């Protein structure tokens, strides 16, 4: 759905840099093309530059260097109110002195749209977020979730082609947040708008996005669809930031045909897929997802390397079991197994042997 | 546990009771009575203070503005004659007899001056008539009419008798009439005061105009400063805040006199303008001892009262509101006018009300730098308190001022709503 139009570049960042103090760069050489209709999430820890990028796109910050284009037009010097970009803020920013209806009417009034047209658009936008009965309420009379919906409706009511969302669900409780994730996703699909979404919540990013740009230290660490990001992280930061993973430091012993043999500090050999390593003797960090570690040898490929492990702790979590192991001197190795019929519950102190398919272990850059 | 719930609900009157059967409301009131008593004791000193220093004096002032017994208490017989006869009755021998007897008694009690002063308030130039006749009162013999007219023929003046009839009543609206440039003629009809005494309405008007102008100036000057204070980083805004508050820590007198130094004919501003050739030495601007001086100095003094409420309202307004408005397509001016400004209204209201009410009652600055054209109503109130000693008129003027301010306050409440006021 997305790949065919990806190169259009509806929104393009080209060599964008941003500095606030003239001494350090908050955004370092950002290159990003977002295609029309795409849902792109900027994900990263606070201070990683993701919000700055969004603010530059919205026009509230100016890029120190580089060009930002919207629909082929450079917008560096276009003031925010002429960009025609809808925006949803973290704290909703609904105008407290106006009713819900007036809040929605505001973007239409400043565009000089007639009264009849306005009313029709407002009704349509409110119905879209199932808030049709609330036009005469004040924002303060609404719950957090309702305010969020109104903020969404206000950002969409003037039919923008691009909508920016700055951690819009951050202030909601977990259940409501998950519900709103789906609603926003559905709105995006129905309306065919382009969405740039900023969050630090990886679950949210994985659930909603077509593509995710993982930010750290002012750079995009990886730009990929959610499944790629989770299963094929390009570096140690992405592997550590998205989901849980086990890290085993070691040295490349052998590398050939897309497979690497890594010798851990304690002497064991393990299988891995080389990602950021290319030659023998290189230091590396092998990353394995807890749910891809296998402790039943019959489930593993015949030539897989197995290593010794000792069970430290077993936690029953309902749908899954979480077992902490001592592997290669580290006590932080975690495996997850589904609570299926006949699944084994490991006992603390038990000695087992574990292994994995080589493609699930990724040899990344050492930290 | 289920039993206890049943007990609570099963009370026949339908009211809830506690476990030992007392009505829940009584028990609650008793439990809270102690705390309420303690709270009341805490505010009691302030309550007494307000009562003694605010309610009582204002009540006295209002009373004095309609009550003056300077004549009626010292001229009892003549007051009785006025009470007996119709307004406009020509004074007969009985009236002159009462006048003579009263003057004799007053001369003995040395209160003729008080009586003369009271009549003099309404009819200037009559005090000496009373004191001079009072000195001769001991020798009056019947027929009193001839005797008194011989002492001074001015006693035949019907206007004088009309005035005496008015002041013979201790309670009279005359002071309030005088405060709004009205008077009563001999027949007791309300008419305009003579032109040379019509000053108060003009002064009220000037006072309210100048206070309004100062309020507008304070708002125009204070709004950007308050906005800057609210948006600057904390360090810089603290420094600016000190600058705003600095005038509060300086004596009012020092600040006012420093304006004299700056603005007078040979002052800093004029000298600078002359030195730079913008004006010639002969055309030095008159900026002090007139309305201009009053306006400049009072705007400066009242500015913090505008800035502080504005600041306290602006500080918690997050910048995302204006950003949201901008992202929705509003130009920066529209965003300011439709989104930012309405949210600062409580602060504008509070600051404007504060500055206006303080400005309307301001005394010391106009007295020092106002000259003749910069005098406000409070200066005249002070004049009647200290120089003319017509306390009743001063009280009436003050009461009119109080009434006008209360009307404004009421209007503000109707238009903006007093609950929209935020003082800090």
UniProtKB/TrEMBL annotation, chain A:
Keyword Cell division recorded: no
Top-level taxon of the source organism: Bacteria
EC number per UniProt: 7.6.2.11
One Gene Ontology CC term in the entry: ATP-binding cassette (ABC) transporter complex
One Pfam family recorded for the sequence: ABC_tran
Protein name in the entry: Spermidine/putrescine import ATP-binding protein PotA
SUPFAM superfamilies: MOP-like (SSF50331), P-loop containing nucleoside triphosphate hydrolases (SSF52540)
PANTHER family: SPERMIDINE/PUTRESCINE IMPORT ATP-BINDING PROTEIN POTA, SPERMIDINE_PUTRESCINE IMPORT ATP-BINDING PROTEIN POTA
Protein's organism: Cereibacter ovatus
Biological classification of the source: Bacteria, Pseudomonadati, Pseudomonadota, Alphaproteobacteria, Rhodobacterales
Keyword Cell membrane among UniProt keywords: yes
All copies of domain ABC transporter, residue ranges: 11-242
Reaction equations catalysed: ATP + H2O + polyamine-[polyamine-binding protein]Side 1 = ADP + phosphate + polyamineSide 2 + [polyamine-binding protein]Side 1
Automatic annotation (TrEMBL), chain B:
Membrane topology, record value: Multi-pass membrane protein
Domain ABC transmembrane type-1: 204-412
InterPro entries reported in the protein's UniProt record: MetI-like, MetI-like_sf
Main location: membrane
Alphabetized UniProt keyword annotations: Cell membrane, Membrane, Transmembrane, Transmembrane helix, Transport
The organism's taxonomic lineage, starting at the top: Bacteria, Pseudomonadati, Pseudomonadota, Alphaproteobacteria, Rhodobacterales
Protein name according to UniProt: Putative spermidine/putrescine transport system permease protein
Residue spans crossing the bilayer: 39-58, 207-230, 236-254, 294-314, 348-369, 389-412
